[in-house]
Amino acid sequence: MRRLSLFAWASVFAGRILAASVQLHSRSPVPQGWENILCLLDYGVFGSPVLTGAYHSDYTGMTIEKCVAFCDSQSTPFRFMGLANGYECSCGNFFDNYYEDVGLSSCSSWPCNGDPLEVGGCGGLYAASMYRRINSNFIIPALVPSVGLWNGLGCYNDSVSARALQVRVEAGSTTVESCVAACQAQGFSLAGVEFGRECWCGSQLQHGSTFFGNDNGIQHGNFRQNPNALHCNMGCQGNSSETCGGPALLNLYNFTGMYPIGASVVPAVDGWTSRGCYSDTVSSRTLEQRIDVGSVTAESCVNACQSQSFSIAGLEYAQECWCGNEIRPPGAPISQSACNQACVGDASEVCGGPNALQIYY
Ligand SMILES: *[C@@H]1O[C@H](CO)[C@@H](O)[C@H](O)[C@H]1NC(C)=O
Ligand SMILES: *[C@@H]1O[C@H](CO)[C@@H](O)[C@H](O)[C@H]1NC(C)=O
Ligand SMILES: *[C@@H]1O[C@H](CO)[C@@H](O)[C@H](O)[C@H]1NC(C)=O
Q1: Which residue positions does the secretion signal occupy (predicted)?
Q2: Which residues line ligand 3 (CB under 6 A)?
Q3: What percent of the chain is modeled with pLDDT above 90?
Q4: Contact residues for 183 (Cβ-Cβ < 8 A; gap 6+)
């Protein structure tokens, strides 16, 4: 249906010749309620147009006004409109395919097939004049460059089967602010928002996650299919004017401060004294038993170990309480700076870190 027939080409060129024979070329007006934002290559004739919400072609009668009327007659109040090749009209809320931005001048000399005096608003040869509806209902989310001590690093790739960041955390109704706060409370150095609502934290990037670009769609709409244009462009669940990543894409933030913020080591609990920070490993545990104490603090953990007749207590990874009667190798003292997480049960207390135990006995 989108392939040009010989008749169509004949009509197209008839339009060109007619236009050329008209001496006075008037620049076509931008329709009210719309702005002309771009001129894009559009390979619509090969089946992959930029906008795919609705499509209408009229080899002999197309004008900008007719395209506006067509887009307005659809059940969705589409956000973008495109006119290509002088006779093709399409509408959509996303740029499903995105080709080269060829500059507004590449769309400025062809007439609309339906009106030879309407020059410059109906695209060009394989070029589409792209319009955006001026409508406050369409909020285009913007990148939050930084939040407090967290610096934005841009858009990074993720994948469902191999996650870029270690843990997903609850961040309420997700915003960039709520996510970095949730990651900060647990002592992480990286935070990432994804798919509008997910909040991820980690201490390093995993699985080859790498910078993907910074385009949040302000210039070009929301891209979906073209991998070269698929950037972080989804509004946050908790604030639609902020960008919260995209599908399998993280807006990544890096903590630039020192941990733990506002938390300090509880020096002693019931006669048990803090003995510093010790290393731990998942494969060989420094303390023999993990105990579930619900809301972990230095007090709740020490009390739990004491009541079970252990002589050593250790706090790890913000939320783990470990007990034992000996410090088992390879566990050994390490820098206190490795115990860099606040307790889940009380953010003013230090609760070890990743593979790091705050030890009491
Ligand atoms: C990110 O993209 C790179 C390059 O395409 C790829 O090698 C890597 O596996 C991806 N990582 C994730 C976490 O998706
Ligand atoms: C939503 O985000 C914008 C941009 O970051 C910010 O200016 C605005 O205050 C936020 N709104 C609310 C209700 O937090
Ligand atoms: C985060 O910032 C630190 C310096 O503050 C830097 O060493 C580190 O490479 C950054 N992380 C990423 C993923 O860019």
Answers
A1: 1-19
A2: 153, 205, 254, 256
A3: 47
A4: 169, 190, 191, 199, 201, 253, 255
Q: Looking at ligand 3, which atom is closest to the CA of residue 204?
A: 13
Percent of the chain with pLDDT over 70: 81
Which atom of ligand 3 sits closest to the CA of residue 254? 1
Per the DSSP assignment, residues forming a β-bridge with 124 are 127
In whole angstroms, give the CA distance from residue 62 to residue 112: 6
For residue 178, pLDDT beyond 90 = yes
Looking at the predicted structure, is the pLDDT value of residue 303 above 90?
A: yes
Q: What is the mean pLDDT of residues 46-65?
A: 84
Residue 107 CA to residue 86 CA, distance in Å, equals 10
Is the separation of the CB atoms in 33 and 133 below 8 Å? yes
Greater confidence (322 vs 78) lies with 322
CA–CA distance from 146 to each of 10, 28, 76, 214, 337 (Å)?
55, 42, 35, 14, 25
**Radius of gyration (C-alpha) of the chain in whole angstroms:** 30
d(CA 315, CA 53): 55
Candidates 115, 138, 139, 137; CA nearest to 28 is: 115
What is the mean predicted confidence (pLDDT) over 76-82?
82
pTM for this predicted structure: 0.53
- CA 189 to ligand 3: nearest atom: 1
CA of 241 to the centre of ligand 1 (A): 28
Average pLDDT over residues 233-250: 84
Helices (H), the chain: 6-21, 64-72, 176-185, 298-307
Q: What are the φ and ψ backbone dihedral angles of 209, each rounded to 5 degrees?
A: -60, 135
Mean pLDDT of the chain: 83
Measured CA to CA in angstroms, residue 269 lies from 264, 287, 350 at distances of 14, 19, 13
Distance 241 CA to ligand 3 centre (A): 27
Residue 116 has pLDDT above 70, yes or no: yes
